[in-house]
Amino acid sequence: MSMQTVAVRTSGVVKTFGEGESAVQALRGVDFDAHCGEMLMVVGPSGCGKTTFLSVVCGTMRADEGSVEVFGTDLIHLSAGKLTAFRGKNVGFIFQQFNLIPTWNIVENASVPLLLNGASKRDAEAEATRLLTEVGLGKRLRAFPRELSGGQQQRVAIARALVHQPRLLICDEPTASLDAASGRKVMELLKASACRPDRCVIVVTHDSRIFPFADRIVEMGDGVVKGVHNAGEYHVSF
Ligand SMILES: Nc1ncnc2c1ncn2[C@@H]1O[C@H](COP(=O)(O)OP(=O)(O)OP(=O)(O)O)[C@@H](O)[C@H]1O
Ligand SMILES: [Mg+2]
Q: In whole angstroms, what is the distance from residue 156 CA to residue 167 CA?
């Protein structure tokens, strides 16, 4: 067995929304491992707990039970302030809603994580410009989000997620509104940023076109991990 450094490890993660009759047990004991240097995809039917699981791993949501460890840090026992700081430094997100600031142009939008980490505006915008150019938006740097297509806005969100070089990148359906060529470009970018020995990318997706980019595929169902597959042997079953 090869020695692999653990990036994310959860065990027995339980999360319930609501109480009594109307309670929904979104996570029922999730045991999960992601290694450094790996791109891991998470698949499973709608409502099975994928987004809830990502929220627990990135610390925007607290688990009710179980343990969550990211790069050796136990998130469960961090104070709210320390958790926010840890996330700001180590985690990048691409969510289904892009959450761009409408009154800021895309360079300003993509600079945000660096500004939050104390970079100067000049340095942050230089790095944001570099990434926006890499995702094909170099000619639209002064544009505002509303002037861009859904797929272009998604690429701004991707540039923003990568700008502070997070060790853990969490993506919820990153190619959902992209055509095949743009989707492939985005995955190549994510893969290039992931395939470093100290980093990890976790991607929730329904998009079977991008499965070949995965190192492993984790299949979720009904609030638990049903199986872990090597990408080559995975066939869509939901
Ligand atoms: N804030 C909430 N309050 C109540 N129930 C919630 C909340 N968030 C999620 N749920 C419920 O938890 C379950 C898991 O939701 P989740 O969003 O994690 O699913 P998902 O696998 O991401 O689905 P999709 O593929 O449709 O995005 C669902 O039954 C959902 O209705
Ligand atoms: Mg979801």
A: 19
- Is residue 1, in this structure, part of any structural domain at all? no
d(CA 134, CA 131): 5
Q: How far is the CA of 130 from the centre of ligand 2 (A)?
A: 30
Residue 229 belongs to domain with CATH number: 3.40.50.300
Q: Residue 224 belongs to what domain range?
A: 6-233
In a domain, 238, yes or no: no
* Ligand 2 (single-atom ion) residues, CB below 5 Å: 51
pLDDT in tens, the chain (238 residues): 456 799 999 999 999 999 988 999 999 999 999 999 999 999 999 999 999 999 999 999 999 999 999 999 999 999 999 999 999 999 999 887 778 999 999 999 999 999 999 999 999 999 999 999 988 899 999 999 999 998 889 889 999 999 999 999 999 988 887 888 888 888 888 888 777 889 999 999 988 888 989 999 999 999 999 999 987 766 655 4
Inter-CA distances, 233 with 211, 216, 228, Å? 11, 10, 10
Cα(115) to centroid of ligand 1, in Å? 31
Instruction: Give residue ranges with CB within 6 A of ligand 1.
Output: 17-18, 24, 26, 46-52
Q: What is the pTM of this model?
A: 0.91
Q: In which element (H, E) is residue 19 found?
A: none
Q: What's the gap in Å between 11 CA and the centre of ligand 1?
A: 20
